[in-house]
Design brief:
Layout lengths: L6 E5 L7 H8 L8 E6 L1 H11 L4 E4 L13 E6 L16 H16 L5 E4 L4 H6 L8 H9 L5 E6 L17 E4 L6 H7 L2 H19 L5 E5 L14 H14 L4 E6 L1 H4 L2 H4 L4 E4 L2 H12 L3 E6 L5 E4 L16 H22 L1
Parallel strand pairs: 1-2, 1-5, 2-4, 3-4, 5-12, 7-10, 8-9, 8-10
Antiparallel strand pairs: 6-7, 6-11, 11-12
Amino acid sequence: MRLPAPVLAVTSGEPAGIGPELTLQLALEKAPSARIVAVGDPALLGERAERLGLDVELHALAPGEPVPAARLGVLPVWPVALREPSRPGELAVANAGYVLETLDVAIAACRERQADAMVTAPLHKGVILDAGHAGFRGHTEYLRDACGADEVVMMLASDSALHAGQPGWQGNAALRVALATTHLPLREVADAITATSLERILRILHADLVRWFGVTAPRIAVCGLNPHAGEGGHLGREEIEVIAPCLERLRHEGFALDGPLPADTLFTPRHLVGVDAVLAMYHDQGLPVLKYAGFGRAANVTLGLPIIRTSVDHGTALDLAGRGLADAGSLRVAVALAAEMARRGSIAAAS
């Protein structure tokens, strides 16, 4: 059975950053096996295309108008109006609401089955906080709250991880790193890691590796929180009191879990053989390794949502905006990952 190409809602991100031009670049490449619709201000996208000499025809879609088949050089748009004109590299607090509205439009489209997945270009957390949206932590937490999810998991996957673990795949170049905590100050991390939260996160990670990545029996390596995974309690007791007991309970249910392991040696080729994902305890424990291994060739995916969401592995790059220097590599990976996940969801629903 031939399934229709999935519809991907691509939010264009912070208007002063590189998100708008990365979104435009998608229309100029060989059409992927997906129908892409941008979410943003058509005037902004048109101005950025003209500034950079990008020959893109923008097609603003009316409410209820179906997303057309992909055509080279044509970018359908679900319009969202800027609050004030935007210039590359110059943040405007007034446009924070615009950025959040693009997310709301994409979330609603996914929940109402108008889109099969959403892909997000980078936003700027600081300007959203400066605009008075207190407590904003980032895309991951915003999506969790908007979708009413109890728990979500942030995971970055390298481009080679798209098909790793599936029948016929060979090699160990893939790297997937999930996080037990996301955007927290370091001093709050230890208190946030509880037996309950860690168990929920591991269950989501295991289930979504099966559901979205085709890994039939996931093996997950789990980092310790402290140096040397606590050194037997001499450098911290979280491994003894929280992490190890949680892992042991899940092992009795059949989960394949290694750890808790020292993070400084876990991310070496020998220790990653046969591992489908690594669970790091905090943001800067795991993500620097993945980004060093393949910055611009990885994508962020939010697990545990009722919708599919992927994103780039980088920020707004205000210094590059409007100069034609931005690399759309990570956005391509995010699009390919979202399309693959959407196809898996369609196949599962049809079977």
